[in-house]
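ok trying this again, last paste got cut off
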Amino acid sequence: MTDAESAYRAIRRDGILQVSRPDTEWLSTGWNGGRCTADCVYNVSVPDKWERTDLGAYVDERLERAGFEPTAADATGPALLTGVDIDDARGARCGPVTAYATAGVSNPAALPMEPGADTDSDETVDDTVETELEPGRGTVNIIVGTTRALAPGALANLIAVVAEAKATTLLAETGFPGTTTDAIVVGHDPSGPPADFSGSGTEVGAATRACVRDALRDALCVHYTDNDVTCPESVSDAVYGVSTDTRAEVFSPPAADEAIEPES
């Protein structure tokens, strides 16, 4: 069986994208994240002015309504939430990797390299930190699966590879490195050919970067070409958004002979 034949398959139904491969181990940064083993993961589109906070119950209801079984989110694997229409999802495949993306940037998160110098946002990090998904937002959700069996550290590192590719693509296409609610799910096949590493110079890492870039670019294109929405040009131009305009304190870690011993 080739990688293409055994890749992560997806279907769209009733505002939900289901990505499936039997006995996959997933690692999610989403609302109910962490590691789990399941046959499927989901990307669920929420309606405008959505205000539900019981996310587990909401996902269960949506999966049941769409005819996906079983209906319990913790039994079916990770679920992501997005304000983007699932019809705008796009996938890409390269070698042992498949990626799916949905993308909307109504809530951009800017990171100016000279904070406070010439910002178009009146807000600071102190009053814009978000801890919950808020209604009416876009987001960038990416699901990546590989047919390789990744070492535990390689699976975790794949999150970083996806995030780097996402930020690079978004900067090139929108001028923002991300949004306030982005989420990533990565998966691997524990029974596949082993791979100890997943960095950018590896087969899995390189394929992941290509898949994320191409799926995300097409997802952005269809969302902002085929719909009556426009991509914001700045944080102040966006419906929602934040700019991290504060500066952190930079310091040099002390040498061993300079370190202060903690009091007993």
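PB: full thing came through this time. The domain at 9-111+136-230+239-258 is CATH 3.60.70 (L-amino peptidase D-ALA esterase/amidase).
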